[in-house]
Amino acid sequence: MHRSLESDAAGRSIVQFPPARDPATVVAGRRRSATAASAGPAGRREHAGDERQTNPPMTTCAATLIDGNLAAEEIKEELRARVERLAASGVRPGLGTILVGDDPGSRSYVRGKHRDCADVGIESIRRELPADSTQKEVLRVVRELNEDPACSGFIVQLPLPPHMDMRVVLQAIDPDKDADGLHPVNLGRLVLDQPGTVPCTPQGILELLRRNEVPITGAQFCVIGCGTTVGRPLGLMLTRVTEHATVTMCHEATVDVAAHTRVADVVIAAAGVAHLVKPYWVKPGATVLSVGITRTVEGILGDVHPDVEGVAGKWTRATGGVGPMTRAMLLRNVVDLAERRAEQDRPSRSHADAVEHAG
Ligand SMILES: NC(=O)C1=CN([C@@H]2O[C@H](COP(=O)(O)OP(=O)(O)OC[C@H]3O[C@@H](n4cnc5c(N)ncnc54)[C@H](OP(=O)(O)O)[C@@H]3O)[C@@H](O)[C@H]2O)C=CC1
Ligand SMILES: Nc1nc(=O)c2c([nH]1)NC[C@@H]1CN(c3ccc(C(=O)N[C@@H](CCC(=O)O)C(=O)O)cc3)C=[N+]21
Predict the structure, then answer these.
(1) Which atom of ligand 2 has the smallest separation from the CA of 330?
(2) What are the φ/ψ torsions at residue 278 (nearest 5 degrees)?
(3) 337: Cβ–Cβ under 8 A, 6 or more apart, which residues?
(4) Which residues, 6 or more positions from 241, have their beta carbon under 8 angstroms from its beta carbon?
(5) Which residues are bridge partners to 249 per DSSP?
(6) pTM
(7) How far apart, in whole angstroms, are the C-alpha atoms of residue 155 and residue 187?
(8) Ligand 1 site-directed mutation target among 108, 167, 229, most atoms within 8 Å of CB
(9) CB under 6 Å to ligand 2: residues?
(10) CA distances in angstroms from 326 to 112, 230, 273, 291, 297, listed in the order given
(11) What is the mean pLDDT of the chain?
C-alpha cells in the first residue's frame, strides 16, 4: 500500500489522502474515462475539492436510495395500532424530553420528536432549562420524570452544556424509563445480550437494512466512528448471534480507513466528518449509510460524499435516511416501555383467579 504518513502533535500517524500512487485513484481514473460522456449536473461537484478524491458525477448505474422517511412512516403505522391497544386498557404512553440550553439543532430535534408523538398518539412531556442551569437543577428534573407515572420514558437531549457531566446526568435516569438506551445498565444489558432498551440510531440502522433487504448475517461491515450513541452500540448489535455480521470498527487513530471501507459490503459512516467517505472508498455495489451530521450555513452535510451514489448499490443521503428512523425508534422504545409497565401493573392471571376464588 502506498500512502504518505505524517505525525500530528500527539505523535499519532496521519494518512494524507489521496496518496499519490494509491491504487484507488486508478479505479477513480478508470471510472472517470468510462463515464466521460455522461457527466451529471454541475451542482453535484460543489464539494468535490481535490479532483482526485472524488469520482465525477455518474448519472448511470446510480445507487438505489434507501428511504428512511418511508420506513419510519410504516413503523409509525405499526405503533399507532399498539398505542390504540394500550388506550383500550386505559394506558397512554408518554415521552418526556429534557432540553438544556437553546442550541438551534437540539431545539429542532426535540420539536420533531414531539411532532412524531402527536402523530402516533403518545403524550408529550416537555422540560426546558436555560443553558446556565446547574447540574443539580437538571438532576432534579430527571428525578421528577423518574417519578411521573404519566411518563413512560424520557430522554435528555445531548449535548449538554460543557459545565455538566453527561455521564452523571444519564446515570440518574431510571433504567426502566431510559427511552434512549444510553444508561449504563441498558448498555450493559446490550453487551450481555439481555433484554433492555437499545439505543435508537443503531436500532434504526438495523431496521432500515432489514426493510431494504440488505443481507446482514455473514456480511462484512465497516463502521466508521465508535461513539456511544451510534458506532459502539451498533458494533455490539451487529455481532450478536441473531445478526452475526463481521464488523470492523474505525476511529480517529485508524491508519487507513479507506482500506477497511473498500472491502466492506456495508459501510456505516458515523464520525461527524462532512463528506468523509469518498466514492473511491466504496466497493462497487456496496450499501453505504450516512449517519454523521455536520451543520453548516449551507445546510446539513453528511459523512458520505454525494458522488458515492455513482458507486454504491444502495445508500442513504445525509437526510431522509437514518434520521427519521432514529426518531421512529425512540417512539418504539417508549411504546415498548409503556407496554412493559402495563404488563407489570396488571394483576397476574393466577393472582386474579385466586382473588375470584376467594370471593
Ligand atoms: N442521523 C442521526 O439520526 C444521528 C446522527 N448522529 C450523528 O452521528 C455522528 C456520531 O455520533 P456519536 O456516536 O455521538 O459521535 P461521537 O462524537 O461520540 O464519536 C465520533 C466517533 O467518530 C470517530 N471519528 C472522528 N473523526 C474521524 C475520522 N476522521 N475518521 C474515523 N473516525 C473518526 C471518533 O473517533 P475516536 O473514538 O478516535 O475519537 C469517534 O469514535 C455525529 O455527527 C452525530 O451528530 C447521532 C445520532 C443520531
Ligand atoms: N439524547 C439524545 N438522543 C438522540 O438520539 C440524539 C441526541 N441526544 N442528540 C443529537 C442526535 C442527533 N439526532 C438526530 C435525530 C433525528 C434526525 C433527523 O430526523 N433528521 C432529519 C433532518 C432534520 C433537519 O432537517 O433538521 C433527516 O435526516 O431527514 C437527525 C439527528 C438524535 N440525536
Answers:
(1) 5
(2) -90, 160
(3) 93, 152, 153, 176, 177, 179, 197
(4) 193
(5) 223
(6) 0.85
(7) 15
(8) 229
(9) 108-109, 112, 155-158, 180, 200, 293, 300, 319-320, 323-324, 326-327
(10) 11, 10, 19, 10, 24
(11) 85
Q: Which helix (H) or strand (E) holds 95?
A: strand 94-100
State the ipTM, two decimals: 0.98
Per-residue pLDDT tens digits for 286-332: 999 999 999 999 899 999 999 999 999 999 999 999 999 999 999 99
Question: Domains of the chain by range and CATH?
Answer: 4-65+201-322 (3.40.50.720), 91-177 (3.40.50.10860)
Mean pLDDT of 128-153: 98
- Please name which of 271, 224, 279 lies closest in space to residue 247, comparing C-alpha atoms: 224
List the residue whose alpha carbon is closest to atom 20 of ligand 2.
323
Q: Distance of alpha carbon 309 from its chain centroid, rounded?
A: 20
Integer CA distances (angstroms), 289 to 276, 317, 321, 331, in order: 12, 7, 8, 22
